[in-house]
Queue: 2 jobs
Job 1
Amino acid sequence: MKKFTCVEDIGDLRAAVAEALEIKRDRFAYSELGRNRTLLMIFFNSSLRTRLSTQKAAMNLGMNVMVLDVNQGAWKLETERGVVMDGDKAEHLLEAIPVMASYCDLIGVRSFAQLKDKAEDYEERVIEQFIRYSGRPVFSMEAATRHPLQSFADLITIEEHKTTERPKIVMTWAPHPKALPQAVPNSFAEWINATDYEFVITHPEGYELDPKFVGRAKVEYDQRKAFEGADFIYAKNWSAYADPNYGQVISTDRDWTVDSEKMALTNNAYFMHCLPVRRNMIVTDEVIESERSLVIPEAANREISAEVVIKRLLESLK
Ligand code: CP
């Protein structure tokens, strides 16, 4: 594997999950693989889980790790070619990328959607430049349109907890006060569509995702109807994708908050969310604290998904 930005890059999902479960049984089994290798993690945006779990995964593999927060202590980076750099951005990505690459063997990048220009976001301009100009294996730590390390961890978590071969998975939009990217729901949909699980997406009208990611999923605008018989409820907020409202909050309807009354409609479903989560906006205290909440094991599996991905990228260097 030379890069990791989407579900296609991981190949066979059953093999990937089996490898993840093997690593989970002994996460230090490959501690020699990364000896004298360096991972550079570059953050254009904040993180708790991705930062810690990815660093831990790399350390499990014996790597050295460097972390750069672009907006805290580094030169502000210009990402567009052709710009007259007379503003506050002192360095261009086209110099910064090869310089950073000269200090490391692998690069992880977090660069969220700006939510101003759909075409720009969906072209993935920042991470694509790292892939093109670094000469190093690059992996996404959440890019503009996908968060594959999260989705892989979500899939591992579902595999660990499912009690039927084809569980019903429901991804539900839930309210949030700020405009969030579509990366997590896009990516979750992409990964679940690559399985044979039953898959339903529910959201208010106007929150339709890019059809490329919706794929074979059934879209149900009645949240309560969608929840009926569900085995897993995956909650997430996202901003509007459809024009003319791209990147905007068009509803904060608290009737979409996941609560115990709605969870009672399910097949005793597990509750999932990638975190961070706004309690009593996305989900009630009662649901997230219930014994069916998987948010902590799901976050813990971020270490495992990252370890599989970094292991495979290291193997490509040999
Ligand atoms: N789920 C997730 O990616 O969390 P962070 O934004 O804290 O890394």
Job 2
Amino acid sequence: MQALILAGGKGTRLRPLTVYTPKPIVPVMNRPFLLYQIDVLKKAGIEDITLSLSYQPDKIQHVLGNGSDFGVNLRYITEPTPMGTGGAYRFAADALRETTVVFNGDILTNLDIAALLDFHTSKQAEATISLTPVGDPSRYGLVETDKNGRVLRFIEKPSPEEAAKLNINTINAGVYVLEPSILDIIALGENRSFEYDVFPEILRLETPFFAYTMSSEYWLDIGTPESYLKAHHDFLDGKIDGFSLEQESDFESATRSEIDLRSRIGSGCSIKPGVKIVNSVIGPGVHIEEKATIENSVIWSHTRIATSAEIRGAVIGRSCHIGRNAIVSEGTVLGDKTALTDYTKV
Ligand code: GDD
Ligand code: MG
């Protein structure tokens, strides 16, 4: 059994965070994001994992290496130009002539892959797609099924009116099980999308195509700043089971600082007296000066936050400098190396 992670998108909706850090390795709870997908695959006994890359591939390879640090074998396939989700799968075909679990590289889920594979086998499916219920389905791929779970229709990003008419709230969760026969219906060397081309073609050919619907599993696409921040808050709220996150402990904090128990502080941070940290994740090597306040925020590594600065509901990139008494308000996202002058309000 193999897995392919589609990790070649540009991460445009997560800019500016993805200008220097490709989406597959943005830190989530201070770990490169793909490690959560690797954890879930490993749990199902899948250790041979191919990463399909296109945007900033070297950075991803540098961080994840050959996978031995994480107990898996990682292989990389880089497209010369982005081939689309289906085209990327076809491009990796030589590595994939067996049943393959395909993951969109920006899905945070604790889906039980072994159960998904059992379902796929029991239905004798050639393709199985996982579904999850969401509030607003129009941002996703809408999937209509019959009562046996057979896929009847796949509609990518319907207009809100179209979505309302269909009255379905289960969407494509971005995890598939595909038999190699699916490779044969995708033209080699062309840009092809699973969502717009391959799935409609599977339906047209009447190939057995089934949907596995999640119920209590956690699922989130981390591809926007709001959902990226939400992933952290859900972890801090204890809403995401199944991952073991070790608390880092080698940071220095003044006894007169107030850090709530739920916040996570990376190694090598220094936290001065009077600092207040609430419901936040602070990356490694961050310096926080006297009386600064950080609430409901994510701060990437090696950022410096000066005296009495206030940061609330924000994501702050790597190696930024937040000046004294600066105020960073709800919803702000600062790219790496941003410098805010003293007293700036954003
Ligand atoms: N290798 C490669 N090449 N990967 C790609 C390419 C490509 O050309 N284009 C996109 N990807 C990767 C992205 O890196 C991402 O991990 C994944 O494919 C999905 O792309 P997104 O751009 O994040 O798609 P989306 O979120 O708008 O929609 C997709 O995911 C939804 C669930 O989150 C669709 O599959 C929807 O149907 C689905 O509901
Ligand atoms: Mg996405």
